[in-house]
Every structure is written in structure tokens, then in C-alpha cells.
Design a protein that fits this description.
The protein has about 150 residues and is an alpha/beta fold. The chain has helices at about 10-25, 40-50, 65-70, 85-95, 110-120, 130-145; strands at about 1-5, 30, 55-60, 80, 100-105. The radius of gyration is 14 Å and the shape is globular.
Length: about 150
Amino acid sequence: MRLAFGCDPNATELKNELLEFAESLGHEVFDFGAEDPVYANVAIAVATEVAAGNYDRGVLVCGTGIGVAISANKVKGAYAANLNDVYQAQRAQLSNNANIVTFGSQVIGPVLAQELLRAYLLVSYDPNSRSASKIARIAEYEATRQ
């Protein structure tokens, strides 16, 4: 799987650990950097590329994971979920077809973050699942927005 990673400067260490972890799992990883203190810029860049299909999924990190999630979700076709437990990690993909996950470097540690990333990457959305009508409604609404 092709994965795009990005973060703000204060989350560099966790982003790098997650990037190396994903690479060790056999994924192709791409680093969008960590230099810009305005986390929205890297979040929008990653989300734009993921939504365009240039990467299969994205991983974003900031202090809480919330700012990058909000920023990424402003990009049409980007669906970012902030993760804090394994159930959320699985359901982000299985129930919600999230193509981006976010982490808070000041909220969770690297071991938990790696487990969450692993859980997220091990599952795929089933378009025939009971969540399909819910996901379709999100896409339908999104199509009406400018």
C-alpha cells in the first residue's frame, strides 16, 4: 500500500516512528515533511494527494490529531479519522472508509500509535457492508458542496 505521511514540527518524532513502522510492514511510504508550523498546510497537501488517488491512504500527526483531521477533512474526497483505540482504528476503515488517519503526539505514545496504525492498515472497507448507505450519504452531500 502507498502511504503518505505528514505532521507539524512538534510531532516529527511520532510521525517518523510511524513511517518506519509502516515501512517495516512492507508498505511504500512517502514523507510530506514536518517543517511547516501551520499543520493545515501539510494536512491539506497529504489529503489532496490521497483524495486524488496518488496514495492509498494517509497518516497525519499533530499535538492532538484534531487539527490535522479538521484540515484534511476540508479536502473533497478526504475522510480523516482521529484514532485513540484499536476499535476506532478498525472501524475507521471498516465502517467509515476513512482514507486518512490522524494521531496526537501529545495524547498517545508510539507503541499504541503503532498498534492503531497496524489495526487500520489490516482492514479494508466493504462497499456491501451495513455502513454502505451511511457512507453513500456522506458522498452524496459532499457532491453538492462547492
